[in-house]
Automatic annotation (TrEMBL):
SUPFAM superfamilies: HD-domain/PDEase-like. Transmembrane segments: none annotated. The lineage of its organism: Bacteria, Pseudomonadati, Pseudomonadota, Gammaproteobacteria, Alteromonadales. This is HDOD domain-containing protein. InterPro entries: HDOD, RNase_Y/CdgJ. Residues 13-206 form the HDOD domain. It holds the Pfam family HDOD. It comes from Litorilituus lipolyticus.
């Protein structure tokens, strides 16, 4: 099957709720007000709690207390709150997956790590509104869960634990596509913004110079995460292109600082997005 066919099968199982669709409609409607969006979010207590916890987390580092959804939208902006809503409903949608708790805990841990790493890199490079990059890292590998659900026997064949072959290369050889490409197809079916699924689709492309800085940073953050979680004995320069590092002005010192930031923020973020993984960690 192609990445598109996998995504089509998954879209029948992993469905975004009606609440998400209503919020999306309001955000797409230029005549909608902050109160209109806030009122729909407030209809879902769990979503409301998650958005407020994230808005008040050290991740955003807002100096005051954000105690209402309307204030969250006002302070963080509609786009950022929309990203938090996407994060919440995506996590909820994938609760339907047929997979063990340990597997899912590791999956979300790696996803949160990638999200924190890309946010740090974006901030370091003074990318505008670097917090928005978090959603790219968090959702970058949903294709793995799609393959796990549709053809679980192929997941083990795609696993890589050394540098003999990188995971995305193995996925290409086994499946004919990468998890990132499959992720993008599902996000496209969900009608999420092109600005989200385009970097995710191209995150594994070696021709990084053809793509924007968001794609390049996801490309790097994913590799830092892989090095820190899976192939700890290796060096960053073994899996991150030297010319890309030079182009962006990044080096081992920055990568180490990004990893330290991730270590500091991981538990807090997991406790909000995936409490079971936080307890294990």
């Amino acid at each position: 099957m192609s990445a598109e066919q996998y995504a089509e099968k998954a879209s029948d199982i992993f469905v975004l709720s009606d609440s998400f669709l209503r919020i999306k409609e309001l955000i797409d409607d230029e005549s909608s007000t902050i109160d209109d969006i806030s009122d729909v979010i407030l209809l879902d207590p769990a979503l409301t709690a998650t958005v407020l916890k994230l808005a008040n987390s050290s991740f955003f580092n807002y100096p005051g207390k954000i105690d209402t959804i309307s204030k969250a939208v006002l302070v963080l902006g509609i786009t950022e709150v929309y990203n938090l809503v996407i994060a919440y409903f995506t996590k909820e949608a994938f609760k339907a997956i047929d997979a063990g708790a340990d597997y899912l805990d590791l999956f979300w841990l790696k996803s949160v790590d990638c999200a924190l790493l890309i946010k740090f890199l974006g901030t370091h490079l003074h990318v505008a509104n670097a917090e928005r990059l978090f959603i790219l890292g968090l959702l970058h590998n949903l294709g793995e869960l799609i393959v796990k659900q549709v053809t679980p026997e192929l997941i083990a064949k795609c696993e890589v634990n050394d540098l003999a072959e990188l995971p995305w290369q193995k996925q290409q050889s086994i499946l004919g596509f990468t998890y990132g490409e499959c992720t993008a197809e599902l996000m496209k079916l969900w009608q999420l913004p092109y600005s989200l699924f385009s970097p995710i689709r191209h995150q594994d492309q070696p021709e990084w110079y053809h793509y924007n800085v968001e794609t390049q940073l996801l490309h790097i953050a994913k590799r830092i995460m892989h090095k820190n979680v899976v192939v700890k004995q290796t060096n960053y320069t073994d899996i991150i292109e030297a010319d890309l590092m030079e182009e962006l002005g990044l080096d081992n010192r920055v990568f180490t600082a990004a990893a330290d930031f991730c270590d500091l923020e991981r538990l807090g973020m997991l406790s909000i997005l995936n409490p079971s993984a936080a307890m294990v960690f």
